[in-house]
Amino acid sequence: MLWVGSKGGMEADLVQRAGLPYTAIPAGQVAGMGLRTPVNLLKVMQGVLASKRILDQFKPDVLLFTGGYVAVPMALAGAGFLGGRRVPSLVYVPDIEPGMALKLLGRFADCIALTTEDSRQYFAPGKRTAVTGYPTRSELTEWTREKAAAHLNLQADRFTLLVTGGSSGARSINRAVIPILPELLKNMQVIHLTGKLDWEEVSSAQAGLPPELAKNYRPMPYLHEMGAALAAADLVVARAGASALGEFPLFGLPAILAPYPHAWRYQKVNADYLVRHGAAVMIEDADLPAQLLPAAQNLFDHPERLQQMRKAMQSLAQPQAAQSLKNLVLELANSDVRREK
């Protein structure tokens, strides 16, 4: 296996820490770059040449793409853009709506793997697609509620709210939570994964809490054992990135979602999907300060509705997703496609 990424990309450290070989290629975003478009086009061409060299040396049986503009040069090289052997490829679409890079990659792919059926509409009718679900790490499900509560020093039988903005945190969520902590902590335990940028502000808020409330609060800038937080929680407040389509269903965890507003609409589409299935409620980012407490309190006060949301979220789980992706990769690697020019 060889992981190909971008030069200076954040994935390099993560991949190497996992013990996988990593190499980087030049790449550049083209769409929406204005005056930088010619420079990035040059990077793309350099990336195609670098990708061709990698294919000639590594001789892969199959290519797996998960999106991002860094994948485009390799997809072009793998499709025989500069001559040479054509390599079969699988594209995985994490979000419901694919970005421009994934739509382009899909044109070259032999198969497109999707998180949900809703993604089929974004690709040509004749294209081979397969719904696999969103792959989750196996270690997530090693946690039981009791084990997670002990690890996080929580009461296993007390209602627990998880607040998370992802690995880097979400400032608008953090700042909406801080003022309402006294009201939340009267009724529930709160696990608050803040990210590093707002940690000082959150720590200050924690220090100002009376002891009888502070004992119910677990703020952390980052938590490696994410499975513990998910297993311990009865409700989550979060963004609506692609992982929400896999991790929350895996744990049957009802959600209050606040899609990130300063990007294309991927998170809004993801949130709409979960809301439409009765598994989540959505709050616009700008409305968090006014609506977060009433939304959380309403679900706490109506356990029957929360239970309905839990069942709805659980019904969307596809725990076999990683295995399904693996099977598709192996199928393509052993197919006749790899022998075509």
Query: How much beta, percentage-wise?
Result: 5-15%
Number of domains: 2
**Poorly predicted sequence stretches spanning 5 or more consecutive residues:** 31-35
Mean pLDDT: 92
The percentage helix is 40-55%
Q: What strand line-up does the widest sheet have? A: 9-8-7-10-11-12
Total E-strand runs: 12
Order of helices and strands: EHEHEHEHEEHEHHEHHEHEHEHEHHH
Give me the Rg, rounded: 22 Å
How many strands, what sense, and barrel or not for the largest sheet? 6 strands, parallel
CATH superfamily of the largest domain: Glycogen Phosphorylase B
Morphology call: elongated
CATH topology of the largest domain: Rossmann fold
Essential attributes:
Rossmann fold; six-stranded parallel β-sheet; 15 helices; 2 domains; 341 residues; 12 strands; four-stranded parallel β-sheet; single chain; alpha/beta; 42% helix
